[in-house]
Amino acid sequence: MKMLAVETSTDACSAALSIDGVITERFELTPNQHTKLILPMIETLMAHAGLRPQQLDALAFSCGPGSFTGVRIATGVIQGIAFGADLPVVPVSTLAAIAQDYFDQPYATENIAFTAMDARIGEIFWGVYQKDGAGLAQLIGKEAVTLAAEVEFPDINGVAVGSGWGVYAAELNTRLGTRVLSNEVEHYPRASGIVRLGLRDFNKGLAVPVEQAMPVYLRDKVAQTEAERKLNK
Description:
single chain, 233 residues, alpha/beta, Nucleotidyltransferase, domain 5, 2 domains, 5-stranded mixed sheet, 7 helices, 36% helix
C-alpha cells in the first residue's frame, strides 16, 4: 500500500509518503512559505522512493479546519495529483492530526486529547480525541468552532493540546476544570499523522473521488445551520 499525504493548514508545512507502513516525511515550521515548500517536498519523497504518482494507491490531505489559504493549498495540490493520476483521496481532519502528534510522542501518557486551534475573532476550533487500540486519534462527539468558554466535552480527563490553549488558556481551564491533567500546547498537524490516519480511513472505505475532496470550513457549517434555522421559522 502506497499513500502520499500533505499538510499545510497551520504555520507548519509537511509531506509524507507511506510504503507498506514505512513512513518518510519532510517537515518545516516556516509560516507563509507553503506554496514554495510543498511541491519540492513531494518531489523529493517520490524521487527517493523511485515512484511516479500513477504508482500510488491513494492520497490523503489535511482538509481543515485551519488557515483558509493553507487548507486551500493542500486541497489544490492533492486535487492536481489525483486528477492527473486518477487516484482516490482521503480527507483527514487537521484537529485529528494535532491530537495524533501528541499521541505519537514517547512521553504521551494520556489517551484523551482536548484539542483546540486558534480560529481568530475570539473563537477556537475544537475537538476531543481518544487514542484507539492502534494508537490513532478517534473523534469523540463532533468538531466545532466555538467560544472557548462554551466548548462541549465528555466527562473524562485528558491533556490540553494545540494552539487554542495558548491563546485561551484561562477560559478553557475554567470551563474544563480538573479534567485537564497537563498542557501540550506546542503540537502541530504533520503529514506523517495525516498519512497514518488516512490509511486507517482508506481501509474503512472512506476514500472519495477527487471531485469530493474538498476543504472543511467549520464556520461555513455554522453559518449554514443558522441560515437553515431562519428558513425553518
